[in-house]
Amino acid sequence: MITSSKNTPDPVEFKGKRVLVTGGTKGLGKAVAERFRQGGAAVVVTARSAPVEKTDHYFIQADGSTLEGATKVTQEILNHFHGVDIIIHNVGGSSAPSGGFAVVTDEIWQQNLNENLFPAVRLDRGLLPSMIERGSGVIIHISSIQRTLPLYDSTLAYAAAKAALTNYSKGLSNEVSPKGIRVNTVSPGFIETDAATRMIQRMADKDKADYATARQKLMDMLGGIPLGRPNRPDEVAELVVFLASDRASAITGSEYVIDGGTIPTI
Fold this sequence. Notes:
The chain is α/β, with parallel strands linked by helices. Helices cover 42% and strands 14% of the residues. It has a 7-stranded parallel β-sheet with strand order 3-2-1-4-5-6-7, sandwiched between helices.
């Protein structure tokens, strides 16, 4: 069961700030968008599908994995908001089949790059000029611990694309930090979103086991989580929001891992 943190957001911390959250209608993206709203920001979310629940966010329906989708988002933001102050690149994922390297076709490799690297590259290219003109802004790329702990069976291309995203993020920070734009990366481990909860329940039904047993089985498959549980979306959102805030004004070019201790090395 997913619970929320008891932190009380400052309702004016992001007052006057325009925030873009890609993939902002479900899972982590939804939690991040809501947390910024609670902090007083004007939030823009983009995704392939419209949100199921009504929100106060400005929604742009677009496929961020395509050049056309990224162009649509960029143009609509520049036309309606004249730019943004904070970008959270959350969109991404993988639907590759299991079976290791042999089943990962060129098309699957390209799809994973399209979904996990190019959305950030294209939106940054479109929206950074207005940030540079103002001399301020924050960009956060949501990567994954798989960029250093790849799972070869079904997410090899995803892991490689996230590694590319993290590398790109570092390089971008070196270029634009002197111009007033901070760029950081957040790399979560397993997050227990609603979608993950449904997947665990399917595993339980298949194994004729209870939810707790299936949940533990999934954590064991990941190599174990010393904390004893996955991340909650709101926990990761708190880290993202902190890095985007003035409280983190000296932090740029860094990667922050939030994985309950999953990665076994320093």
